[in-house]
Amino acid sequence: MFRNNRLFRLIISSCLDLAPILAVVLVFQLAVIQQPIPNVAELIIGSLFVVLGLTFFMLGLEQSLFPIGESMANAFARKGSVFWLLLFAFCLGFGTTIAEPALIAITTKAADIAGGAHLIADNDAAKTDYALDLRLTVATSVGVAIVIGVLRILMGWPLHYFIIAGYFAVTVMTPFAPAEIIGIAYDSGGVTTSTITVPLVTALGIGLANSIKGRNPVTDGFGLIAFASLTPIIFVMAFGMLA
Amino acid sequence: MMTWLQHFLDTLLETGRDVLPIAAIIIGFQLLVIRKPIAHPGKTLLGFINVLIGIAFFLEGLKMALFPLGELMATQLTAPEFLNIADSTAAADWRNYGWVYLFGACIGFATALAEPSLLAVATKAEEISGKAISALGLRIAVSFGVAIGIALGTFRIVTGTQLYFYIVTCYAVLIIQTLFAPKFIIGLAYDTGGVTTSTVTVPLVTALGLGLASTIPGRNSLLDGFGLISFACLFPIISVLGYAQLAEWRAKKRNSNHS
């Protein structure tokens, strides 16, 4: 009975999450653009799917992604091997980013721009190479970001020094980077963190902060994703300057 | 019905392929390095399947209902006929794009509120802070940030000003805020910047940016279409830090009134 109640609550909250999008779309379509909604049936079925999807996602989150992230953080902390923890951190960052669909889309577009601007040869082989190199660059940068983030939690270094240093690096590098790469570099920071990576990485950070003495999960546990959205900007601009 | 099932299975397979490297890393490290079985294998597997099905349904629903409509609206809103732009002088005037800014802000707010990654981080934050941080409050603060970010981002595309200038100004504001904000919120605030833009926001916002860049003369749709996402990443950090500062300031004021 309790389980049913929880499921019911999840469904209700998913409906509430979706409501603002529907409201914006309907109001603009009917009142501002003043056009009829093209496919009412598809809109209704699609919305039902979104609600179902959010409900299943939240259910699975509590059952698997959060506990697994935390239990692995605990196991690594008990094992006490910094090397394996950092290797795990790198693999997690690299592995989740390399397959990210949003990243694949953005690197393909970036290769088109580079081809059009004659930075690289304007043919398919050169573009495919360029897009793959860019993807590897971003994936490596996210791996490095999670490693730095985990090291920070282990050592208890304050987050803001890193962020300020990162911003400083971005600010100094931008005037020297090719103009074509700047927009892509800034955007690549945002697309690297997917729906599965975020809960897992968050749980890893909080689990680590929980199992190390003297760390506060609220102050020290967050910040891994912050690095993962900052280092790609730096790495992609460096890539643009070197390529 | 059959084509629909085919679509859904495709999406499920695609999501499965994205999850594969993550599952391989977790299982590999669990077996080879930690060398302990996973605590509740059945429950964990079920949870993974739930996450997979959830994401597949979510994406399929978005593809079916919201993306086509959102993209259609983005093109309709940025069409010269709708905006009443007769010639290039009118097109160059940023005041003619009021509806675009408003739509950008509204859709940014609404999509950020429904973003599953943000939901995950906010839930976790509420849980570990012992409800000191409210999940809904956090999500609303983030959504406001995304709304402002997208509105300003569309303004930038319309005026054709340098992306660099805006970003550096944001960085300066952020650094100052970071020095004065309560310490517990900093990590969380910076994390929310990265999680706001994934499944829902990116496609809709990209369509808006590309539509806008192709309407305005002198804009390159490939070059100027980029940059909106970085706005949507930076402004939530500012709004969450601001929200925390405001909350702290009000608490202080209340305390000094009492004493």
From TrEMBL, chain A:
Q: Which UniProt keywords apply?
A: Membrane, Transmembrane, Transmembrane helix
Q: Could you name the domain of life of the organism this protein comes from?
A: Bacteria
Recorded hits in Pfam families, A to Z, give: DUF1538
| Transmembrane residue ranges | 7-31, 43-61, 82-106, 134-154, 161-185, 191-209, 221-242
Record flagged with keyword Transmembrane helix: yes
Q: Which InterPro entries match?
A: UmpAB
Asked if the Swiss-Prot or TrEMBL record annotates the protein with the keyword Zinc, the reply is no
Q: Can you say what this protein is called?
A: DUF1538 domain-containing protein
Lineage, uppermost ranks = Bacteria, Pseudomonadati, Pseudomonadota, Gammaproteobacteria, Methylococcales
